[in-house]
Amino acid sequence: MKRVLMLFLTLLLLISMAVTAFAIGDDNIDNGGGGMGSGTSQSYWNPGMDGVRVSVINAETHAVIGSIIDLTNQVPGTSLVHFGKVSKLSYNSGRALSAAVGGYSCINPAQSLPRIISSGDYSASIDAIRSYFTDEQTIRGVAGYVGIDFDTLISGKYKIVIEPIAYFYYNGQQYAMTATEAALYDQMVDGNLRAQMASLTHKNLPLAIFLEEADLGYPAWSGSKTQKVSNAEIISSLGIGVVRFNDLTESPVVDSYDYEYRVDTDVITSVEVSGGQSDPDNPVSVQFTIQGTTYTVGNVYYPDGDSQLAWVKWHTPDEPCVITIRVSVSGGGSAQSTITANITDLDGHDPPNPLANDRNDAFTKTAVPNNAEAASASWGIWSPRWHEKWEWVSNWEQCWHSSWVSDGKGGYWNDWYHWVDNGWWEDHGWWEFDYNSYSASLTATMTVTPDSKNPTAATKTLKSGYGIQESVNASVSTNQSTAVTAAQNAVTYFPEFGYQSFWRLLDRNISGKHSTFEFKQNHYSTYNRRTHFTPVWFPDGAYTPYTRLLDCWTPAGMLSVNLTDSLNISGNLWSDWHIAPDNP
Length: 584
What we know:
The protein is 12% helix and 38% strand. The chain contains eight helices and 32 strands. Strands 1, 2, 3, 6, 7 and 8 form a six-stranded antiparallel beta sheet that branches. β26 (507-511) and β27 (514-518) form a beta hairpin. It is globular and about 160 Å long.
């Protein structure tokens, strides 16, 4: 019946235009933009050829829920190039662009969208955009399209993410791109998209929608609302708006730290450098001062209007602390001048000593956590190359001559000249830039087994009260090894504690970009085994430890993955004991 009702409500939205609208969502949306440049016959955008990508996001885990949809008032061409229906959150978690020609689908809502992207002659109304996407009918329609119950959608557990889309021609081919897709694609074509379509792809499209407040791991945009922005700024901060339901959700937590690191760990700290153009004639360098040591990164190159990541690899202290990193830029560029890093220690939270008479009659199983993870990341380095253009520089000079002229009276000297170009060739060329892309991906496996000292365990089955052992194997693949660390920390949480309160920081063994992890020696174990004892009261069924693999650092941030494995609990250790009467 609920499905029938939802279908009815969705159809009602599509056919009805004269229904009273109520705002039920709280918008986190702002916009900007400005004038448009002139296109070419092969690369251009017509104002109004825009739309939005809509996805529903779990507010806690940041996972995408249901279908992703594109809404537009237009009818794009059937042979346009697109990249599927992918949320910005997925791209920032390492999803790569995957182009397709044709087969693009979109929805023309009966209640027409407001103008999304500003042009030189028409500024999109932020009030109209906010009103549209917080309107009850719009949200009911989104629920129907995505495939989620309306009451569930507005319960406070979910948020709606809005991304602007532009339909435009580039080199004679029509494309559909969100702001994030345009930035990623520009990296793939070495900045050529920006070179031809910058006013759209690097200004009015990404600035069409951005956040007023930090949300879902993205910062509020505090940069210019009218100037062109870099690929890195688009990917990290722009082209995203959020509709949330704040009366049922907690206020966003503002993190006061730029980085969260662990003690005794190799880490990478990065800043985005921009401003003017940096090339071998006008180079930029960056200095990081960390705990009294200054690290200098030279030859930080980037084209005018873009930016470049500069980073330093260093090792954190052995004790928890907060470190202020000072950053200075010389040569004309600018970057964040102060970075605050919180250094934490995950050790010291081992579970208490389990006892044979422990009880927990009120225990109920908790769902395994699904923390945000990033299994891959990408970044790049601008490489300048000189484009020669030799031109002749004229230097006309008089070349004088003297000759004797006889005139019957003895003669005279005649002085005369002609013009000679004593010029030279000069190279009036310029610096061009190639964007060299790099990436890293983290893969890992986790295996839990009964402790080998367990006398009655099978391969994946044991009785509660006995110990288990764990092994984690992790590998990092990258095409810039010097800019990436191995995975360095693994923390395992257990179902008997609801995956909180107590955990085990695993011992690590690192060789190159390969890491292995196992439990530390347990001082409650008779044989000092690397084991974790299951509680004797744990009910029969699946026993699933959860491991968070951390601290694989790249210039684009930390890679991390969630890992689980399960054993089957059947019976308890008391069934292995038999008390016989004394011999008469």
